[in-house]
Design goal:
- The protein is mainly alpha-helical and 402 residues long.
- It has 3 domains: 1-38, no CATH class; 57-228, no CATH class; 264-402, no CATH class.
- Helices cover 65% and strands 0% of the residues.
- It has 19 helices and no strands.
- α6 packs across α7.
- The protein starts with a helix and ends with a helix.
């Protein structure tokens, strides 16, 4: 890497203040710090709390998302290959079918390699477009503000593709990414100043702006002419009996079901949660509070029951392994920027999200996946929750001190 270090050192005078390409310094700095640690050190007396900075935090979350990415690649290909086998179709349509034939891996759903390779052909284009567009916006705003490019989009650029179906048009990925970055973050000042999760903001925009490509039965498996509802959609339409006949709880836990590419595997999310809690990046209080709120609410509604709404028939164990609940609990609700900051506030914030997620799922069968909206609502209430907690602490301290 010595030659690369020398190359950046030669470029530095041209991109630094007063140089010929001063306007491109944010781009230069972003690429330089991506490969090398900054050489600038703090002078004078300093107080270091820990060794965690933004870059390390983003990398840690990226590592925690690794199991979800692996599950996304496998399950996306598995759903396609299984459907092709059932329909008796010789090959997948378009350029992906040509690549599969060129590689000679086939469409055998029992082959892990075939499933993963086929999944790559759907996930990677979405991931590439998301990061290229998001990165371009980050560079533009950093250049205008004459600031360094933050690493905040590294996680958003991985989270957003995982929340999308494999059939999503790439131009919609670009529009959703633009909305999430610009409206969800940059208009508020950039990373650390936004009050909404940018990835969820992008997904919410796509969901309501282009519902045909984000809902229904034809978007979850990328095979022309095939329709298949997600488990939550199946329960909302036909009841729990229709679900248990077609899907086992183990399959739902492992993630071999219809759904957004990276949200189906609860097991992968639990592995990521363990890593985030171990490293101190993810708040276990928020995760546990979301779990308690969802479990208590789903148990209450299950025992209350309903003769007209089949979603009341779903017990808590099923709620926790379907849809984007586990993914949102681990990676979205715990976003350190948009979540509650105070220790007591984290419990209230997490419980609120769990409560609202189940309430939206069950009470509104037309929208069985409520995790996205519940987290966004939690983001909105987080500052208010923290303010109440701080005010209560101040009041208690005044009473104690007389």
């Amino acid at each position: 890497m010595k030659f690369l270090r020398e190359f950046f050192d030669r470029l530095h005078p041209y991109c630094s203040k007063g140089g010929k390409y001063e306007i491109l310094y944010p781009l230069y700095d972003a690429i330089d710090t991506f490969f090398f640690s900054p050489g600038i050190v703090t002078k004078g007396t300093t107080h270091v709390r820990d060794g965690m900075d933004l870059k390390r935090m983003m990398i840690t979350v990226g590592i925690a998302l690794g199991p979800c990415v692996a599950a996304a690649l496998y399950n996306t290909g598995y759903q396609v290959n299984s459907t092709l086998a059932e329909m008796g179709t010789a090959a997948a349509p378009g350029w992906r079918g040509w690549v599969i034939q060129l590689l000679g891996v086939g469409y055998n759903p029992a082959s892990t390699a075939a499933n993963v390779i086929h999944g790559i052909l759907y996930f990677v284009p979405v991931f590439f477009v998301c990061n290229m567009v998001g990165g371009a916006w980050e560079i533009l705003f950093a250049t205008i503000r004459k600031e360094e490019i933050s690493e905040g989009f590294l996680v958003t650029g991985l989270l957003f593709p995982l929340t999308l179906p494999p059939t999503i048009p790439l131009w919609q990925v670009a529009i959703g990414t633009s909305f999430g970055v610009v409206i969800g973050k940059e208009v508020f000042g950039g990373t650390g100043k936004n009050f909404l999760n940018p990835a969820l903001t992008a997904r919410a925009f796509i969901f309501f702006a282009y519902p045909a490509q984000m809902s229904g039965n034809a978007i979850w498996t990328a095979v022309d002419g095939f329709t298949g509802a997600t488990p939550l959609g199946l329960v909302a339409a036909e009841g729990m009996e229709a679900l248990t006949v077609n899907v086992s709880w183990n399959a739902a836990f492992l993630g071999q079901i219809q759904g957004s590419m990276g949200e189906t595997s609860t097991l992968a999310c639990l592995v990521g949660a363990t890593f985030l809690i171990y490293t101190g990046v993810g708040s276990w209080r928020i995760m546990l509070a979301v779990l308690i709120g969802a479990f208590a609410t789903s148990a209450l509604l299950y025992f209350v029951g309903s003769e007209t709404n089949p979603m009341f028939q779903m017990n808590p164990a099923w709620h926790l392994v379907l849809g984007g609940f586990a993914f949102g609990l681990v990676f979205m609700a715990t976003d350190p920027v948009s979540a509650a900051m105070t220790e007591s506030g984290k419990w209230i914030y997490g419980f609120l999200i769990g409560f609202l997620a189940i309430l939206i799922r069950v009470i509104n069968p037309a929208y069985p996946e409520g995790m996205m909206l519940s987290i966004l609502l939690g983001n909105v209430f987080a500052p208010f929750i923290d303010a109440l907690v701080i005010r209560a602490h101040i009041k208690r301290r005044r009473l104690r001190d007389g």
